[in-house]
Structure formats: C-alpha cells, structure tokens
Specification:
This protein has a five-stranded mixed beta sheet. The chain has about 130 residues and is α/β, with parallel strands linked by helices. The chain is built from three helices and five strands.
C-alpha cells in the first residue's frame, strides 16, 4: 500500500534564520548616532600635567553662583572684571572650574560670554573619572 504524497512544508525556519542574521548584522554594522556633514575633532584632555600658572580662575557652584579668584561676584560684575583683565592683557589664561553637578545652563553661556569678551585661552578644569 502506497502513502499519498504529502505537501512539502515551506522552509520558513530557514527564512527566519536569515532574517535574524541580517538584523544582527545591520545592528552591529550600522551607526545609531548622527554624523556631522563635516570633520569634527573632539577636544583633547591633558591628565597628570601641571596646570599653567597665572591668569584668572572662575568658579561655578552647583546652584550657578559665580566667583572670580575666590571672590563671589554677580554675573555682571564678573563680566566687567574679565573684560578689564583682557583689555590689559589679551593673552590672559582663564580657568573655568565648575562643580560636577552644575547644570550646563550655568556653564555654557559663561563660556560663550568669556569668548565674546575676547579670551583666547580658556581651560576647563575637570577631574578624571575612574577607569573601569
């Protein structure tokens, strides 16, 4: 007695394997971040080097309070003092020491303002984190 021929099942398992392989391949090869339409070279940090002497040190507290060389100042007074210093010596080094929990809304406008006043050398003071 002969059996009736059965329909051959579709090779769906092989298709699923191929789809997952392609998915993993494109996840590994693809980039999730937006790339700039031009060359961008990130800033370099210098760990373990001596901090250059002289210049001004601006401190930014966690809540946005400002100080210039350990003297608390209002933002307007700080800008006046920096402008006067840069008028006298345009190559003055300015260090920016912000609290690690200070919000960027306190720090970034300050950097822009310092640059607008004509500062040529601004150093951001950071503490290197632990290497995992």
């Amino acid at each position: 007695m002969r059996r009736a021929p059965r329909d051959t099942p579709e090779p769906i398992i092989a298709l699923i394997d191929v789809v997952f392989f392609l998915l993993v391949f494109f996840l590994l090869v693809g980039r999730f971040d937006a790339t700039a339409p031009f060359e961008v070279l990130p800033a370099e940090s210098a760990a373990g080097e001596e901090m250059p002497g002289g210049g001004l040190t601006i401190s930014v507290a966690r809540d946005g309070r400002l100080a210039l060389d350990a003297e608390p100042l209002a933002p307007e007074a700080l800008a006046e003092r920096i402008a006067a210093e840069l008028d006298a010596a345009p190559a003055t080094l300015i260090r920016l020491n912000a609290h690690r929990d200070a919000e960027l809304r306190h720090v970034l406008p300050l950097v822009s303002q310092i640059e607008g006043l004509g500062a040529r050398h601004v150093v951001l003071i950071v503490t290197p984190g632990e290497v995992p």
